[in-house]
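Reproducibility note. Readers wishing to regenerate the assembly model reported in the main text can use the exact inputs given here. Chain order matters: entities are listed in the order in which they were concatenated for prediction.
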Amino acid sequence: MVKQDRAVRTRKNILEAAAKIFEERGYQAATIAEVLNAAGVTKGALYFHFESKEQLAQGVLHEQDQRFVIPGRPCKIQELADVVLLHAYRLQTDPMVRAGVRLTMDQHAEGLDRSGPFLRWSVVVRELLDTARSQGELLPQVVPSVTADVVVGTFAGVQSMSQTVSGYQDLQSRSSALLRHLFPSIAVPSVLASLDLSESRGEVVYEEIRSRFEQQPAAAVS
Amino acid sequence: MVKQDRAVRTRKNILEAAAKIFEERGYQAATIAEVLNAAGVTKGALYFHFESKEQLAQGVLHEQDQRFVIPGRPCKIQELADVVLLHAYRLQTDPMVRAGVRLTMDQHAEGLDRSGPFLRWSVVVRELLDTARSQGELLPQVVPSVTADVVVGTFAGVQSMSQTVSGYQDLQSRSSALLRHLFPSIAVPSVLASLDLSESRGEVVYEEIRSRFEQQPAAAVS
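Running the prediction on these inputs yields the following structure tokens for the assembly.
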């Protein structure tokens, strides 16, 4: 158990160092030597977990969209809003999330399959919309697979625009505006009237998840 | 006049070569020597028009959003749709447009102010929405400056997602889906019912503009 804990910590160290290097240098320019240096681990330890620069980048991409699980909500459109607004909040505060987004949007990252996060997010959103449909939350013309891609693609663009014009400072208000523009084409009016799409929602959800973790016994957290 | 024509052609050659190099190599890796080589012009000619790599990139960015002017439409929401759908069509067919988009989304282009296209597009969309409001086309809650940024940011993201998952092959259907999701939150129902937001709209508008050019006397075209 102790050995496994150490391996998990080492892997986490390496990914955090890789996130930092990829964010600073871009995929093409970044080297494994720089990641080694930033992580302070041996070459053997790094290659035990990741065999190549691409595997490191895939590790960062996978980590950033797996890290936080939104509490289930009775209203699935609210749950979708929470996924988007929490991600916006975390993008301002978590280097791993920022690095993952940069890798995904890096059109010059040759040899790196960047479609993973787009496709994984699409599946997450699609599943939420399928449940929303079965609960009667969706307007009749909505096709969940099409709408899922619109939600994922549009949110990626709002992130890019916010990064470019304000260094993510206005991301939460832009994300709230995005949802207020998309959801009237997706959800029935009674659902719309019940939603919290405010700018501060991401931070509220973040604190909710944190306090749940803190209430759990220590063994369950590691 | 002849001298001026030659200067215009040289500038155009240089920008097309720069577009190709920036698209292939990314901003950071691209060099002025590569642009010189691809354009087949003298160093003196290039520096007469552009003093630095950044000026070349700004030239490409400026060119891609100035090149095509949409015919005015009585319905300004249709005109906005035409701007978006024509751009989607041209992104598939014009290297200058593709290079401009890549530069704008290149988060590792250090020292290059990439906010220009976002902000210029926002102004274009904002003006269309202001006119739409004065004509009674907008729903009462719409704030044109906020909605303009949502349209520009979301379209940028749909482009990125399309580039990543299909090399722009599905951009026209994704752009059509984007507008069908956004416009019900923006336009009054009678306007919505009159719109053409179909996938083929971009090509239709492109052919319309081309045929107008061809009908003009040759002197006006150069």
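We highlight two features of this model. Chain A has two domains: 2-52, 64-221. Residues 218-222 of chain A have pLDDT under 50 and may be disordered.
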